[in-house]
Write a structure and sequence with these properties.
The complex is a heterodimer of chains A (132) and B (135).
Chain A lengths: L4 E4 L2 E5 L6 H17 L4 E5 L8 H16 L3 E5 L3 H10 L7 E3 L2 H19 L9
Parallel strand pairs in A: 2-3, 3-4, 4-5
Antiparallel strand pairs in A: 1-2
Helix pairs in contact in A: 1-2
Chain B lengths: L3 E6 L2 H17 L4 H22 L2 E10 L2 E10 L7 H4 L13 H8 L2 E7 L3 E9 L4
Antiparallel strand pairs in B: 1-2, 2-3, 3-5, 4-5
Classes of the chains: A alpha/beta (132), B alpha+beta (135).
Chain lengths: 132, 135
């Protein structure tokens, strides 16, 4: 089951449509990281609303996607973790430490807009101090 | 009850199938949707362990009853290499396969009863049960 990856402006949106096998998840990771470079995007949204379970492999793969995308210059945000899935993750002792998570797609887009603006400000060259 | 389901685990699609069947059975037993997800996650972890270490095995799902209590029992059997050091394998974060190390200890956290029986060179059997909370 391939996960469709859509491009929206500077962002990529991977919208998971159904339960995924480990191979599907690994494939999603490869596809996203390749596409971050190809489309020179600044942000990645992974929508996991349709995921039935987030077990250790899924959590590790999402964490890897976020860290790899960051190394390629893009911020990642995970959206749509369902209440039951969050409940099971906490009981399993799984965290998405270091990975941004927000409620839904709308929040995800707002989050990325904020982050990419911050990044632009950070990387703006400083004015030379000793003028005149 | 007598409801029992035997599933072969030999590919990663079987892991998804097993956890979905487990969730469905947990729904039949009257578990809340949160608990159904917990049971599905536990099945996912032990089914993946079968694939990773033994390549092939079998998972049996069944409804169980103890007095007024209803539950779901899961038995995972493989004829793989077995676990040389069960105590270490049960430590959270310990893995011999570059995994997260959440497989066995993770599943144990999720279930009410959990037992591992393993003989090196012969295989591993994991038996685990979740009981429905009566309010």
């Amino acid at each position: 089951m391939e996960v469709p990856i859509l491009r929206q402006g500077q962002y990529l949106i991977a919208s998971i449509q159904s339960a995924l096998t480990d191979a599907d998840l690994s494939h999603l990771r490869e596809a996203l990281i390749a596409q971050v470079g190809r489309s020179r995007c600044r942000g990645v949204i992974v929508d996991v609303t349709a995921l039935d379970v987030m077990d250790s492999f899924a959590v590790r793969t999402l964490r890897d996607i976020a860290h790899m995308a960051r190394l390629r210059g893009a911020e990642t945000v995970i959206v749509g973790i369902q209440p039951d899935v969050a409940f099971a993750m906490v009981q399993l002792g799984l965290t998405l430490k270091g990975v941004a998570t927000v409620l839904d797609l709308e929040e995800g887009l707002a989050f990325l807009t904020r982050r990419t603006e911050e990044r632009l400000v950070e990387t703006k060259p400083r004015r030379p101090s000793g003028r005149g | 009850m007598g409801e029992e389901l035997r599933l072969t685990i030999a590919a990663d699609v079987d892991v998804v199938e097993a956890r979905q069947q487990g969730r469905a059975l947990a729904a039949v037993a009257g578990f809340s949707s949160g608990e159904q997800t917990v049971i599905a996650a536990a099945i996912s972890e032990i089914a993946r362990n079968i694939l990773m270490y033994a390549k092939k095995g079998e998972i049996t799902l069944s409804l169980v009853q103890n007095g007024d209590h209803q539950g779901v029992a899961i038995v995972a059997v493989d004829q793989g290499p077995g676990i040389p050091d069960i105590e270490r394998a049960m430590q959270y974060g310990y893995s011999t396969s570059h995994g997260v190390g959440a497989g066995l200890p993770g599943a144990k956290r999720l279930m009410d009863e959990f037992e591992v029986d393993s003989v090196v060179g012969r295989g591993t059997t994991v038996t685990m049960t979740k009981w429905r909370r009566t309010i």
